[in-house]
Amino acid sequence: xxxxxxxxxxxxxxxxxxxxxLNAAEYEAGRHTFVSAVDFSLVYxxxxxESWLKGGVGKLRFDENDNGLKLSRFFLDYTGRLTxxxxxxxxxxxxxxLKSQVDFTEAYLDFRPIPKSAYRTRWRIGAFYPRISxxxxxxxxxxxxxxxSSAINTWVAEELRxxxxxxxxxxxxxxxxxxxxxxxxxxxxxANDPAGSLLAWKGWSVHDRQTGxxxxxxxxxxxxxxxxxxxxxxxxxxxxxxxxxxxxxxxVNTEWRYGTRSRLRFFHYDNRGDPEALSDGQxxxxxxxxxxxxxxxxxxxxxxxxxxxxxxxxxxPVTGSTHLVDTTFESxxxxxxxxxxxxxxxxxxxxFELYELDSTDDDNNDDYGHAWTVAxxxxxxxxxxxxAEYMEINTHHCGWEYYDLPTQARERxxxxxxxxxxxx
Amino acid sequence: xxxxxxxxxxxxxxxxxLAILQVASNIVLAAxxxxxxxxxxxxxxxVADAAVFLIPKTSLPERLISDPLVAVMDQIDLExxxxxxxxxTNTEVGxxxxxxxxxxxxxxxxxxxxxxxxxxxKLHPPxxxxxxxxxxxxxxxxxxxxxxxxxxxxxxxxxxxxxxGVFIPGVLPGNYDVVVxxxxxxxxxxxxxxxxxVSDETSVQDIAFKLSDKLRHPRETRSSSLQxxxx
Lengths: 424, 231
Hints:
The complex is a heterodimer. By secondary structure, chain A is mainly beta. Chain A has helices at residues 2-19, 151-159, 197-201; strands at residues 32-46, 68-81, 86-95, 103-111, 119-128, 162-171, 180-190, 217-218, 237-238, 249-258, 262-270, 278-279, 282-283, 286-298, 302-319, 322-340, 343-356, 367-379, 384-397, 408-422. In chain A, the strands form three sheets. Chain A has a 16-stranded antiparallel barrel with strand order 1-2-3-4-5-6-7-10-11-14-15-16-17-18-19-20. A two-stranded antiparallel sheet of chain A has the order 8-9. Chain A has a two-stranded antiparallel ribbon with strand order 12-13. In chain A, a hairpin with a 2-residue loop joins β12 and β13 (282-283). Chain A starts with a helix and ends with a strand. Chain B is mostly beta strands. The A-B interface holds A 24-25, 28-31, 33, 35, 77, 81, 84-85, 112, 114-117, 131, 137-139, 144, 170, 172-177, 179, 257, 259-261, 263, 295, 297, 301-303, 305, 337-339, 344, 424 and B 100-102, 104, 106-108, 113, 115, 117, 119-122, 136, 138, 140-141, 143-144, 146, 183, 187-188, 216, 220, 222-231.
């Protein structure tokens, strides 16, 4: 009964918005801006593995047991104008899986003083995505290019969030009407200590699911976290947004933008986690990485987006020359996209790897492979968008031998999604 | 009480007064010239959307009829339309916001700094620009938006079309600086000028400008395949 009641409440919000005949523009009223959307998806997955979301080891969000029609996502992206220069931003995300709890993915204040010179400053305070992704630039942190995010940005959605303060200064082109624009951004944050757990223990994935701020993600039945084993204190799940070691992390981001031709970003992240810190079944992982993102217009109005990320994540007591779990990870993707009026076609190639540096028994973290994604999107009307995507991910994951599974798998998913959006 | 006029006589009197006025105004108009200005770059390609205006060397007489000076700088599809607007000093510029979203226009260009929230459902007052100069517009909500208002202290101004040409009619005889400004100048605070002498014959004078400095590329329409600002 409790589950049924929760589900009813859960679908009340999207149901209301769906049946509400009010024009989206009426929500504007100047002070409140709502953008919300419901995704109806027809999913056909082909995989020998059970999805990680069910406690399995498969990389996909949906496995063969999920094939069929589903309401795969609802989100609400709210901007409230508190003053002329201060906005409140809230993002609510609902996924039809796990415990289907309604959760915030972002909640923050956005302060934008009116520029008095060529230098424009901005502040964000609260919980929000760092500006890593060049794909997820739409409302609700959606991507306009495909249905699923790249491996890099899928991991950002799974385990990364800034809970803290970010300052940004941009030398805007207004002063000299120059096409060159430079931005420097820096942030100090807490509550991202477990970031890296899911990456090291599940490996890289490609999907469109975002973890809410109270989110809890299942881990596979890893031998190393079994009772009596070396990481037995780890709960069989990850809650990525917790402060474990009372040490803030930081990141810096610089961007050079040239008109609407090119955008280049350098990002360095370090959550300064204390790998030996532990609280309530969650370890702090010392996670740091560098990231380069580049977006450029090619001839023929073809867009290219590429990101490269390389880093290290480690947790647990020092054993030998490393921590209990210590891995390096790297991923790259290249996305080509072309818009034809209201239609779009995109092609993406992802390459990912994660290699362990530790020599802990029964915990081989090596995970490497690649993925191909091809997507076709059609904005049928201002509110309706239909998307078709085929994604295949080929993984070698050595740790699957612990479950008597082959260490290599090819998983595919074909998805047809109708998005019904309200607001702009 | 005077006897009332016969209606026919009253009509004739009014017509006669109108005729006198028409002739008088024609006497003044007969001595106005027209300038046909053509602007090209150093590769002889036409420069469109260049502002052209005349600064008189001697002060202009008062206008016979003072028009209310109003102009419009709209926001359509997250862009300023027109991209470049040329207005005379003391013009009131309206910002109607034809989009479905809020905008927040601002400029820090001295001495015409201003900011104007354009929230849906609220009335937006026009902005009067009292000083001559270039006003570069931004939007605090949509970072890519860029527009220009060039405020000039003369009633004689125009903007070149796609062929790089513009007509400036009704110019009273005298000596003028013909000034050209383009958003494609590498330094947008600079202008290019020539001296012209407008005769008291009704005629069209051709003025040609060849901009010798290298110009920026013409403004591209926003590329459609990629998004450049985050939601």
